[in-house]
Design a protein that fits this description.
- It is globular, with a radius of gyration of 20 Å.
- It folds into three domains: 128 residues, Thrombin, subunit H; 143 residues, Lipocalin (Beta Barrel); 85 residues, Thrombin, subunit H (Beta Barrel).
- By secondary structure, the protein is mainly beta.
- The longest helix is centred in the N-terminal third of the chain and has 13 residues.
- A hairpin with a 4-residue loop joins strand 26 and strand 27.
- A four-stranded antiparallel sheet has the order 1-31-30-29, with no helix packed on it.
Length: 412
Protein backbone atom coordinates (compact mmCIF):
# COMPACT_ATOMS: atom_id res chain seq x y z
CA UNK A 1 0.00 0.00 0.00
CA UNK A 2 2.82 2.40 0.89
CA UNK A 3 4.46 1.69 -2.46
CA UNK A 4 1.23 2.48 -4.31
CA UNK A 5 0.85 5.78 -2.47
CA UNK A 6 4.46 6.70 -3.23
CA UNK A 7 3.96 5.96 -6.93
CA UNK A 8 0.85 8.16 -6.97
CA UNK A 9 2.75 10.99 -5.31
CA UNK A 10 5.67 10.70 -7.74
CA UNK A 11 3.30 10.73 -10.70
CA UNK A 12 1.66 13.89 -9.38
CA UNK A 13 5.05 15.51 -8.84
CA UNK A 14 6.28 14.75 -12.34
CA UNK A 15 3.10 15.83 -14.16
CA UNK A 16 2.90 19.21 -15.79
CA UNK A 17 1.39 21.86 -13.55
CA UNK A 18 -2.14 22.96 -14.49
CA UNK A 19 -2.60 26.45 -15.89
CA UNK A 20 -2.37 29.05 -13.06
CA UNK A 21 -5.46 31.03 -12.11
CA UNK A 22 -6.04 34.26 -14.03
CA UNK A 23 -5.59 37.44 -12.01
CA UNK A 24 -9.18 38.44 -12.73
CA UNK A 25 -10.59 35.18 -11.34
CA UNK A 26 -11.57 34.03 -7.84
CA UNK A 27 -11.05 30.29 -8.37
CA UNK A 28 -11.52 28.87 -4.86
CA UNK A 29 -12.16 29.61 -1.20
CA UNK A 30 -10.18 32.73 -0.16
CA UNK A 31 -9.28 33.64 -3.72
CA UNK A 32 -6.33 33.28 -6.11
CA UNK A 33 -3.69 33.41 -3.34
CA UNK A 34 -5.66 31.44 -0.77
CA UNK A 35 -5.32 34.26 1.75
CA UNK A 36 -8.45 36.38 1.24
CA UNK A 37 -6.73 39.03 -0.88
CA UNK A 38 -7.78 40.18 -4.33
CA UNK A 39 -5.31 40.58 -7.19
CA UNK A 40 -3.53 43.92 -7.43
CA UNK A 41 -5.11 46.80 -9.32
CA UNK A 42 -8.73 45.96 -8.50
CA UNK A 43 -11.17 48.86 -8.25
CA UNK A 44 -14.46 47.45 -6.97
CA UNK A 45 -17.18 49.91 -5.93
CA UNK A 46 -17.23 51.41 -2.44
CA UNK A 47 -20.93 52.32 -2.64
CA UNK A 48 -23.87 50.15 -3.66
CA UNK A 49 -27.47 49.28 -2.88
CA UNK A 50 -30.19 47.10 -4.39
CA UNK A 51 -30.29 49.58 -7.30
CA UNK A 52 -26.90 51.33 -7.32
CA UNK A 53 -23.87 49.74 -9.03
CA UNK A 54 -25.68 46.44 -9.65
CA UNK A 55 -24.32 44.82 -12.83
CA UNK A 56 -26.69 41.88 -12.48
CA UNK A 57 -28.73 39.99 -9.91
CA UNK A 58 -29.63 36.30 -10.16
CA UNK A 59 -32.02 34.27 -7.99
CA UNK A 60 -30.37 31.25 -6.34
CA UNK A 61 -32.52 28.14 -5.89
CA UNK A 62 -32.05 26.58 -2.47
CA UNK A 63 -29.76 27.70 0.32
CA UNK A 64 -26.03 27.85 0.97
CA UNK A 65 -23.24 29.78 2.62
CA UNK A 66 -20.43 28.98 0.21
CA UNK A 67 -18.79 31.77 -1.77
CA UNK A 68 -18.88 32.25 -5.53
CA UNK A 69 -16.12 30.59 -7.55
CA UNK A 70 -15.41 32.91 -10.50
CA UNK A 71 -13.38 31.40 -13.34
CA UNK A 72 -13.26 32.55 -16.95
CA UNK A 73 -16.75 33.24 -18.26
CA UNK A 74 -18.52 31.33 -15.45
CA UNK A 75 -19.54 31.74 -11.81
CA UNK A 76 -20.09 28.55 -9.78
CA UNK A 77 -22.06 28.25 -6.57
CA UNK A 78 -23.04 25.38 -4.27
CA UNK A 79 -26.66 25.13 -3.13
CA UNK A 80 -28.87 22.82 -1.10
CA UNK A 81 -32.61 22.21 -1.39
CA UNK A 82 -33.49 21.70 2.25
CA UNK A 83 -36.86 20.10 1.46
CA UNK A 84 -35.39 17.26 -0.61
CA UNK A 85 -31.87 17.31 0.83
CA UNK A 86 -30.35 17.60 -2.64
CA UNK A 87 -26.94 19.26 -3.06
CA UNK A 88 -26.10 20.95 -6.35
CA UNK A 89 -23.64 23.07 -8.27
CA UNK A 90 -25.06 26.06 -10.14
CA UNK A 91 -23.37 27.77 -13.05
CA UNK A 92 -24.05 31.38 -14.06
CA UNK A 93 -22.86 33.44 -17.00
CA UNK A 94 -20.28 35.84 -15.59
CA UNK A 95 -21.27 38.70 -17.92
CA UNK A 96 -25.07 38.54 -17.57
CA UNK A 97 -25.91 36.46 -14.49
CA UNK A 98 -28.02 34.06 -16.54
CA UNK A 99 -28.15 30.59 -14.97
CA UNK A 100 -26.60 28.20 -17.48
CA UNK A 101 -27.02 24.90 -15.69
CA UNK A 102 -27.70 23.16 -12.38
CA UNK A 103 -26.30 19.72 -11.57
CA UNK A 104 -27.52 17.69 -8.58
CA UNK A 105 -24.35 16.13 -7.17
CA UNK A 106 -26.44 14.33 -4.52
CA UNK A 107 -30.20 13.86 -4.98
CA UNK A 108 -30.87 13.73 -1.24
CA UNK A 109 -29.13 13.21 2.11
CA UNK A 110 -27.75 16.67 2.97
CA UNK A 111 -26.55 17.05 6.58
CA UNK A 112 -26.66 19.97 9.01
CA UNK A 113 -27.63 20.67 12.65
CA UNK A 114 -26.76 24.26 13.58
CA UNK A 115 -29.38 26.79 12.46
CA UNK A 116 -26.60 28.93 10.97
CA UNK A 117 -25.26 26.04 8.93
CA UNK A 118 -26.50 24.75 5.57
CA UNK A 119 -26.09 21.65 3.46
CA UNK A 120 -23.98 23.73 1.06
CA UNK A 121 -21.55 25.78 3.13
CA UNK A 122 -18.47 24.96 1.04
CA UNK A 123 -17.00 26.93 -1.87
CA UNK A 124 -16.33 25.22 -5.21
CA UNK A 125 -12.83 25.31 -6.72
CA UNK A 126 -12.09 25.45 -10.45
CA UNK A 127 -8.79 24.88 -12.26
CA UNK A 128 -10.12 25.94 -15.66
CA UNK A 129 -10.88 22.34 -16.64
CA UNK A 130 -12.99 20.92 -13.83
CA UNK A 131 -15.09 22.18 -10.90
CA UNK A 132 -14.49 20.52 -7.52
CA UNK A 133 -16.80 20.44 -4.52
CA UNK A 134 -17.12 18.68 -1.15
CA UNK A 135 -20.44 17.81 0.50
CA UNK A 136 -21.37 15.98 3.70
CA UNK A 137 -24.09 13.52 2.78
CA UNK A 138 -25.73 10.57 4.56
CA UNK A 139 -22.99 10.08 7.14
CA UNK A 140 -20.05 10.53 4.75
CA UNK A 141 -18.10 13.27 3.02
CA UNK A 142 -17.68 13.10 -0.74
CA UNK A 143 -15.47 15.04 -3.11
CA UNK A 144 -16.82 15.42 -6.64
CA UNK A 145 -15.50 16.81 -9.92
CA UNK A 146 -17.72 18.25 -12.64
CA UNK A 147 -16.94 19.33 -16.17
CA UNK A 148 -17.47 23.00 -16.96
CA UNK A 149 -20.63 21.90 -18.77
CA UNK A 150 -22.02 20.39 -15.57
CA UNK A 151 -21.34 16.67 -16.02
CA UNK A 152 -20.21 14.73 -12.93
CA UNK A 153 -16.83 13.23 -13.89
CA UNK A 154 -15.96 11.43 -10.67
CA UNK A 155 -16.99 11.17 -7.03
CA UNK A 156 -14.89 9.91 -4.12
CA UNK A 157 -15.94 9.17 -0.56
CA UNK A 158 -12.91 10.02 1.55
CA UNK A 159 -14.31 10.00 5.10
CA UNK A 160 -17.22 8.99 7.29
CA UNK A 161 -18.82 11.96 9.04
CA UNK A 162 -20.60 12.35 12.38
CA UNK A 163 -22.52 15.61 12.17
CA UNK A 164 -21.88 18.06 15.04
CA UNK A 165 -22.81 21.52 13.73
CA UNK A 166 -22.37 21.28 9.99
CA UNK A 167 -19.72 20.77 7.32
CA UNK A 168 -17.76 23.66 5.81
CA UNK A 169 -14.30 22.51 4.65
CA UNK A 170 -13.76 23.71 1.07
CA UNK A 171 -11.39 21.98 -1.38
CA UNK A 172 -7.94 23.46 -2.13
CA UNK A 173 -5.95 23.06 -5.35
CA UNK A 174 -2.21 22.46 -5.81
CA UNK A 175 -0.45 21.23 -8.92
CA UNK A 176 -2.38 18.09 -9.99
CA UNK A 177 -4.02 17.46 -6.62
CA UNK A 178 -7.17 18.60 -4.85
CA UNK A 179 -7.00 18.62 -1.03
CA UNK A 180 -10.07 17.76 1.02
CA UNK A 181 -10.68 17.38 4.75
CA UNK A 182 -13.34 16.29 7.23
CA UNK A 183 -12.85 16.55 11.00
CA UNK A 184 -15.44 15.08 13.37
CA UNK A 185 -15.81 13.32 16.71
CA UNK A 186 -15.47 9.90 15.11
CA UNK A 187 -12.10 10.70 13.55
CA UNK A 188 -11.98 12.18 10.06
CA UNK A 189 -9.44 12.51 7.28
CA UNK A 190 -7.21 14.85 5.32
CA UNK A 191 -6.68 13.59 1.78
CA UNK A 192 -5.12 14.46 -1.56
CA UNK A 193 -7.00 13.30 -4.65
CA UNK A 194 -5.88 13.18 -8.25
CA UNK A 195 -7.76 15.92 -10.07
CA UNK A 196 -8.40 13.85 -13.20
CA UNK A 197 -9.54 10.60 -11.62
CA UNK A 198 -10.46 11.25 -7.98
CA UNK A 199 -8.06 8.49 -6.91
CA UNK A 200 -6.55 8.96 -3.43
CA UNK A 201 -2.88 9.99 -3.74
CA UNK A 202 -2.42 10.11 0.02
CA UNK A 203 -4.58 10.19 3.13
CA UNK A 204 -4.10 10.85 6.85
CA UNK A 205 -6.49 9.99 9.66
CA UNK A 206 -7.43 12.94 11.85
CA UNK A 207 -8.08 13.21 15.63
CA UNK A 208 -11.52 12.45 17.03
CA UNK A 209 -12.76 16.03 17.39
CA UNK A 210 -15.20 18.35 15.59
CA UNK A 211 -13.54 21.03 13.48
CA UNK A 212 -14.49 23.09 10.43
CA UNK A 213 -11.31 24.64 8.99
CA UNK A 214 -10.36 24.28 5.33
CA UNK A 215 -6.87 23.15 4.31
CA UNK A 216 -4.67 25.70 2.56
CA UNK A 217 -1.26 25.60 0.84
CA UNK A 218 1.04 28.45 1.88
CA UNK A 219 4.66 29.35 1.25
CA UNK A 220 6.24 29.38 4.72
CA UNK A 221 9.80 28.83 5.98
CA UNK A 222 10.99 28.73 2.38
CA UNK A 223 8.79 25.85 1.19
CA UNK A 224 5.21 25.04 0.25
CA UNK A 225 3.26 23.66 3.19
CA UNK A 226 -0.25 22.28 3.41
CA UNK A 227 -1.63 23.66 6.69
CA UNK A 228 -4.71 22.61 8.63
CA UNK A 229 -5.64 24.09 12.02
CA UNK A 230 -7.96 22.70 14.69
CA UNK A 231 -8.46 19.53 16.76
CA UNK A 232 -6.08 21.25 19.24
CA UNK A 233 -3.31 21.12 16.63
CA UNK A 234 -1.64 23.06 13.87
CA UNK A 235 -0.53 20.47 11.31
CA UNK A 236 1.80 20.85 8.32
CA UNK A 237 2.33 18.43 5.42
CA UNK A 238 4.44 18.26 2.28
CA UNK A 239 1.68 18.82 -0.31
CA UNK A 240 2.67 16.34 -3.02
CA UNK A 241 3.63 13.35 -0.87
CA UNK A 242 1.59 13.98 2.27
CA UNK A 243 4.70 13.58 4.42
CA UNK A 244 4.09 15.17 7.84
CA UNK A 245 6.45 18.13 8.21
CA UNK A 246 5.52 19.20 11.72
CA UNK A 247 2.62 19.31 14.15
CA UNK A 248 2.19 21.29 17.34
CA UNK A 249 -0.43 21.96 19.99
CA UNK A 250 -1.00 25.54 18.84
CA UNK A 251 -4.77 25.62 18.24
CA UNK A 252 -8.03 25.21 20.08
CA UNK A 253 -10.37 22.28 19.30
CA UNK A 254 -12.85 23.93 16.96
CA UNK A 255 -11.61 26.29 14.25
CA UNK A 256 -13.45 27.58 11.22
CA UNK A 257 -10.84 29.90 9.75
CA UNK A 258 -8.18 29.16 7.13
CA UNK A 259 -4.74 30.29 8.20
CA UNK A 260 -2.42 32.88 6.63
CA UNK A 261 1.36 33.28 6.84
CA UNK A 262 4.00 36.00 6.88
CA UNK A 263 6.58 33.40 5.81
CA UNK A 264 7.76 32.93 9.39
CA UNK A 265 4.54 32.16 11.28
CA UNK A 266 1.19 30.61 10.57
CA UNK A 267 -1.79 31.87 12.54
CA UNK A 268 -4.42 29.88 14.36
CA UNK A 269 -7.73 31.28 15.56
CA UNK A 270 -10.78 29.61 17.08
CA UNK A 271 -13.61 29.93 19.55
CA UNK A 272 -14.26 26.62 21.29
CA UNK A 273 -13.59 25.62 23.99
CA UNK A 274 -11.49 28.77 24.30
CA UNK A 275 -11.19 32.06 22.48
CA UNK A 276 -7.88 31.93 20.75
CA UNK A 277 -5.54 33.75 18.37
CA UNK A 278 -1.95 32.55 18.09
CA UNK A 279 1.19 32.71 15.95
CA UNK A 280 3.08 29.44 15.45
CA UNK A 281 6.58 29.22 14.00
CA UNK A 282 6.41 27.53 10.59
CA UNK A 283 9.91 26.02 10.88
CA UNK A 284 8.81 22.90 12.74
CA UNK A 285 10.16 24.05 16.10
CA UNK A 286 6.69 23.85 17.65
CA UNK A 287 7.16 27.28 19.21
CA UNK A 288 4.06 29.38 19.83
CA UNK A 289 5.42 32.90 19.32
CA UNK A 290 2.44 34.65 20.90
CA UNK A 291 -1.19 34.07 21.85
CA UNK A 292 -4.18 36.25 22.77
CA UNK A 293 -7.73 35.57 23.94
CA UNK A 294 -9.45 37.33 21.03
CA UNK A 295 -12.47 35.50 19.63
CA UNK A 296 -11.76 35.29 15.91
CA UNK A 297 -13.74 32.08 15.54
CA UNK A 298 -15.49 32.14 12.15
CA UNK A 299 -14.08 34.98 9.97
CA UNK A 300 -10.58 34.24 8.64
CA UNK A 301 -7.68 36.65 9.10
CA UNK A 302 -5.93 38.93 6.61
CA UNK A 303 -2.24 39.81 6.47
CA UNK A 304 -0.72 42.96 4.94
CA UNK A 305 2.75 44.46 5.31
CA UNK A 306 3.55 42.76 8.61
CA UNK A 307 0.15 43.34 10.20
CA UNK A 308 -2.78 41.05 10.89
CA UNK A 309 -6.29 42.32 10.33
CA UNK A 310 -9.39 40.57 11.49
CA UNK A 311 -13.03 40.90 12.43
CA UNK A 312 -14.07 39.36 15.71
CA UNK A 313 -17.34 37.44 15.50
CA UNK A 314 -19.01 40.06 17.71
CA UNK A 315 -18.48 42.86 15.18
CA UNK A 316 -15.14 44.39 16.18
CA UNK A 317 -12.47 45.11 13.58
CA UNK A 318 -8.90 44.80 14.85
CA UNK A 319 -5.24 45.06 13.86
CA UNK A 320 -2.26 43.30 15.46
CA UNK A 321 1.47 43.30 14.82
CA UNK A 322 2.04 39.96 13.08
CA UNK A 323 5.40 39.28 14.73
CA UNK A 324 4.50 40.11 18.34
CA UNK A 325 0.70 40.00 18.58
CA UNK A 326 0.61 43.53 19.95
CA UNK A 327 -2.85 45.02 19.55
CA UNK A 328 -2.59 48.20 17.50
CA UNK A 329 -6.26 49.16 17.38
CA UNK A 330 -9.80 47.88 17.75
CA UNK A 331 -13.03 49.43 16.50
CA UNK A 332 -16.61 48.27 16.82
CA UNK A 333 -18.24 48.17 13.38
CA UNK A 334 -21.45 46.47 14.46
CA UNK A 335 -23.30 43.26 13.79
CA UNK A 336 -22.36 39.60 14.04
CA UNK A 337 -19.88 38.15 11.54
CA UNK A 338 -19.65 34.77 9.84
CA UNK A 339 -18.26 35.86 6.45
CA UNK A 340 -14.53 36.52 6.21
CA UNK A 341 -13.16 39.96 5.31
CA UNK A 342 -11.54 40.48 1.90
CA UNK A 343 -8.45 42.60 1.27
CA UNK A 344 -8.46 44.74 -1.89
CA UNK A 345 -5.27 46.79 -2.15
CA UNK A 346 -5.20 48.93 0.98
CA UNK A 347 -8.90 48.45 1.80
CA UNK A 348 -10.83 45.76 3.64
CA UNK A 349 -14.41 44.70 2.84
CA UNK A 350 -16.18 43.02 5.78
CA UNK A 351 -19.81 41.81 5.56
CA UNK A 352 -21.90 41.03 8.64
CA UNK A 353 -24.79 38.58 8.92
CA UNK A 354 -27.36 41.33 8.27
CA UNK A 355 -25.87 42.06 4.83
CA UNK A 356 -24.07 45.23 5.89
CA UNK A 357 -20.56 45.63 4.44
CA UNK A 358 -18.09 47.91 6.20
CA UNK A 359 -15.16 49.14 4.14
CA UNK A 360 -12.11 50.43 6.02
CA UNK A 361 -8.45 51.11 5.44
CA UNK A 362 -5.91 48.31 5.97
CA UNK A 363 -3.76 50.61 8.08
CA UNK A 364 -1.88 49.76 11.26
CA UNK A 365 -2.07 53.35 12.52
CA UNK A 366 -5.80 53.68 13.15
CA UNK A 367 -9.24 52.59 12.02
CA UNK A 368 -10.44 54.68 9.09
CA UNK A 369 -13.90 53.99 7.70
CA UNK A 370 -14.38 54.31 3.94
CA UNK A 371 -18.05 53.41 3.75
CA UNK A 372 -20.92 51.14 4.78
CA UNK A 373 -23.40 49.51 2.38
CA UNK A 374 -26.44 47.31 2.96
CA UNK A 375 -27.67 44.58 0.62
CA UNK A 376 -30.28 41.97 1.45
CA UNK A 377 -31.47 40.88 4.88
CA UNK A 378 -28.95 38.12 5.58
CA UNK A 379 -25.40 37.32 4.48
CA UNK A 380 -23.15 34.47 5.61
CA UNK A 381 -21.07 33.93 2.47
CA UNK A 382 -17.74 35.68 1.98
CA UNK A 383 -17.76 38.02 -1.06
CA UNK A 384 -15.54 37.11 -4.03
CA UNK A 385 -13.81 40.17 -5.52
CA UNK A 386 -12.14 39.98 -8.91
CA UNK A 387 -12.08 41.93 -12.16
CA UNK A 388 -13.04 45.02 -10.10
CA UNK A 389 -16.41 43.43 -9.36
CA UNK A 390 -17.93 41.99 -6.19
CA UNK A 391 -19.83 38.68 -6.35
CA UNK A 392 -21.84 38.41 -3.16
CA UNK A 393 -24.51 35.97 -1.98
CA UNK A 394 -27.32 37.38 0.18
CA UNK A 395 -30.84 36.39 1.23
CA UNK A 396 -33.95 38.54 1.24
CA UNK A 397 -37.36 38.07 2.83
CA UNK A 398 -39.99 38.25 0.08
CA UNK A 399 -43.60 37.92 1.26
CA UNK A 400 -42.39 36.03 4.31
CA UNK A 401 -40.30 33.67 2.19
CA UNK A 402 -36.51 33.49 2.23
CA UNK A 403 -34.91 33.86 -1.20
CA UNK A 404 -31.21 33.90 -1.97
CA UNK A 405 -29.67 36.06 -4.68
CA UNK A 406 -26.23 36.28 -6.23
CA UNK A 407 -25.29 39.89 -6.96
CA UNK A 408 -22.54 41.14 -9.24
CA UNK A 409 -21.58 44.66 -8.17
CA UNK A 410 -19.43 46.99 -10.24
CA UNK A 411 -18.90 50.69 -10.74
CA UNK A 412 -21.05 51.91 -13.62
Amino acid sequence: MKQILLLCALAAASAQDPKPAAENDWPCWRGPRGDGSAAEGQKPPVTWSAEENVVWKAPVPGRGHGSACVTGEHVYLAACDEASGSQSILCFDRATGKQLWETAVHASGAMRKNAKSTGASTTPACDGERVYITFANQGSVFASALSREGKVLWQTKFSDYLIHQGYAASPALYKNLVFVSADHSGGGALAALDRKTGEVAWRHARPKAPNYASPVVLRADGRDQLILTGCDLVSSFEPLTGKPLWETAGATTECVTSTVTDGVHVYSSGGYPKNHLAAIRADGSGKVAWETKDRVYVPSLLLRQGHLFGVLDAGIAACWAADTGKELWKQRIGGTFSASPVLVGDRIYATNEAGETSIFEASSEKFTKVGVNKLGDEAFATPSICGSRIYTRVAQKLDGRRQEFLYCLGTK
